[in-house]
Amino acid sequence: MNKSLRLKYPFHSSLLILLILILFAIIFCPNFVTSFNASSILKQISHITLMACGSTVVIMLGQINIAYGSIMALTGCVACQIMYNTGNMVAAVSSAVILGMATGFFMGLIITHFEIPSFIVTLIVGMIARGAAMVYTDSAPILEIGSLSLIGQGAILNIPIPVYIMAACFGITWFVLNKTAFGRQVIAVGENRQAARASGIRVSRTIIRGYVLDGFFTAAAAVVYMARMNSGLPDSGTSTEFDVITAVIIGGTSLTGGAGNITGTLIGAFIVGIINNVLNLWSINYNWQSIIKGIIILGAIVMDYGLKKK
Questions:
Q1: Quick check: 305 pLDDT over 70?
Q2: 100, 41 in Cβ contact below 8 A?
Q3: Structural domain boundaries of the chain?
Q4: Cβ(195)–Cβ(201) under 8 Å?
Q5: I need a labelling partner for 164 at 20 to 30 A (CA). Which of 153, 193, 208, 217 fits?
Q6: CA triplet 179, 68, 108: central angle to 5 degrees?
Q7: What are φ and ψ of residue 272, in 5° steps?
């Protein structure tokens, strides 16, 4: 399979799942078909979609990041605290983005320089980031974030601002993967690292750049989420990485790297968002929600490996 076909990894099954899920929700959830609920779903999936954009790139590289929730908590709290101290929204958002990109650079550097599996590195970084968020905030929420809340709660032409941010980040990722040399390098590295190196691609630099981009999207997601919550929450983001990775895998990105589609990731994010929304509308216990989502992740992984073998 050539590189262009790998980038267009099929997501038709994901689209079919989404349509069936929407039909199911319409029939069995009376409160699903309302403008308020539709707006809520879009807001709820916005930060998941942003992180899934970065995760698509990372997983296509044959890597993984399981520290999304912790990094989101840290970068989001930094943005809220700086907003509280200075009242400067640009400084608050910029600080979060710089910290997110720096964290991504650090993870990519450790993974490539010491050749440590990305699972281990991101697991440890997640522990550090969560602890740092707690220390930075004294384990207390930051309740006064001023106009920063507009990013998560405001609307333009009755469309929530998080939707515009989500669309912009989706567009950036689509362009990077489909229209740039870096996008072709991501596919090559994920498909066969040795062959990519032999063809002149700087593999380590490509992986680091992928994690930096991932850090950018994670920080953007953190700002959107904290702004929507109207506070900095150091304990937020628990298990967020599972929703993110589920969206990416269901969308058709291969866990083994070298194949993926950002459009499929967007569909996967909607699937995850609607599942969460339906479970909440039914008032399903959180523990049962974890079981259901775990089964979905396992099914997606089994399907992914089955397709690769076929």
A1: no
A2: no
A3: 3-15+36-309
A4: no
A5: 208
A6: 60
A7: -60, -45
pLDDT digits (tens, 9 = 90+) for 155-165: 999 999 999 99
pTM for this model (two decimals): 0.92
In DSSP notation, 114-152 reads S---HHHHHHHHHHHHHHHHHHHHTT--B---GGGGHHH
- Sequence-distant (≥ 6) Cβ neighbours of residue 46 within 8 angstroms: 160, 162, 163, 165, 166, 221, 224, 228
Rounded CA-CA distance 304/292 in Å is: 18
The third-level CATH classification (topology) of the domain covering 3-15+36-309 is ABC transporter involved in vitamin B12 uptake, BtuC (1.10.3470)
Give the number of other Cβ atoms within 10 Å of residue 149's Cβ: 18
Residues 67-86, mean pLDDT to the nearest whole number: 97
Amino acid in the structure at residue 206: T
pLDDT, tens only, 120-170: 999 999 999 999 999 999 999 999 899 999 999 999 999 999 999 999 999
Q: How far apart are CA 252 and CA 269, in angstroms?
A: 12
- Tokens 């040795």 belong to 194
Residue 84 confidence (pLDDT) above 90? yes
* Beta strands 155-156; 159-160: pairing state: antiparallel
CA distances from 277 to 85, 86, 132 (A): 35, 36, 31
